[in-house]
Backbone:
């Protein structure tokens, strides 16, 4: 089993590169604090650092996630005749117009065909499916390749339950030495922010979210209550992850306390220690359960806003 170490799995000094560990062809054994690998085209790039690969492995093995992703197989039959008739004309996507007059994603389409049984399954589809992209060319979903790309079988995202940018930001708010030691302690504990326990496939398309009864990843350019449009981030969700009970703020405080103790115990040298990664993994599990119980078709930001209002 090949194992590599490099400097892009953290955001501190170069010395931390020795602690960053990427293991090929497995989800286990990695130590990484940034999402620096996400391509899984043709099932390539299988490693502990590849978050799309990890999300796919999680979808294969986690019973509840798979039930949601496969729920369209029965949900469509239960919808009213009017809704079903609307979808028979194609499922409207959430692809949007860019400032330069193009479309995003450029290789996607305005509508996708209503799925037959198995078409959107993890491990599907059973046969190749072709569709016209915005460019006028025919793109093809290859048999068995669902979720290896961000528009197969629909526009989807491999979502980090604990967002990688939020973890980085809150750690960098600490004193520089504490931030470095915090990364050191997590890497030595083999914490991997890209591990499958922290990954969940979410639809980007509003209508697909409704069909699956799953939240959408990003708000995009569609209105939803008082939440601002955003095409690149989910800032309200990030805030919720930080401030919720037993969220990132509390975990970071506990890590800071452990680091201060290690510094005191090793006053004359750099402390060599591990932080308790189970605190972060427990938060990932909590966030997964929360998201899967949220209303389908609405964005993470909109639902996080609602969640924080209920708790305040």
Residues:
């Amino acid at each position: 089993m090949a194992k590599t170490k490099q400097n892009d799995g953290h955001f501190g000094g170069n010395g931390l590169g020795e602690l960053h560990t990427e293991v090929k062809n497995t989800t286990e054994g990695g130590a990484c604090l940034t999402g620096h690998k996400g391509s899984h085209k043709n099932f390539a790039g299988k490693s502990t650092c590849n978050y799309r690969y990890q999300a796919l492995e999680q979808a294969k093995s986690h019973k509840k996630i798979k039930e949601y992703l496969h729920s369209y197989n029965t949900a469509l039959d239960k919808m009213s005749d009017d809704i079903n008739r609307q979808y028979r004309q194609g499922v409207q996507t959430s692809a949007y117009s860019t400032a330069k007059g193009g479309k995003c994603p450029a290789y996607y389409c305005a509508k996708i065909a209503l799925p037959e049984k198995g078409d959107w399954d993890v491990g599907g589809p059973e046969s190749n499916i072709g569709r016209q992209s915005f460019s006028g060319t025919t793109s093809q979903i290859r048999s068995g390749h669902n979720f290896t790309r961000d528009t197969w079988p629909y526009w989807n995202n491999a979502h980090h339950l604990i967002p990688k940018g939020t973890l980085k930001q809150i750690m960098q708010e600490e004193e520089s030495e504490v931030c470095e030691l915090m990364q050191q302690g997590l890497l030595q504990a083999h914490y991997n922010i890209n591990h499958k326990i922290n990954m969940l496939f979410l639809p980007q398309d509003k209508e697909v979210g409704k069909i699956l009864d799953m939240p959408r990843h990003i708000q995009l350019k569609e209105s939803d209550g008082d939440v601002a449009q955003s095409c690149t981030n989910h800032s309200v969700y990030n805030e919720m992850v930080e401030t919720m009970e037993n969220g990132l703020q509390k975990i970071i405080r506990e890590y800071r306390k452990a680091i201060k103790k290690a510094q005191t115990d090793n006053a004359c040298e750099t402390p060599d220690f591990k932080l308790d990664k189970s605190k972060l993994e427990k938060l990932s599990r909590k966030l997964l359960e929360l998201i899967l119980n949220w209303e389908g078709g609405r964005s993470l930001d909109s639902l996080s806003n609602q969640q924080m209002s209920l708790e305040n």
User: Anything to note?
Assistant: The first helix runs from residue 51 to 61. DSSP finds eleven helices and ten strands in the chain.
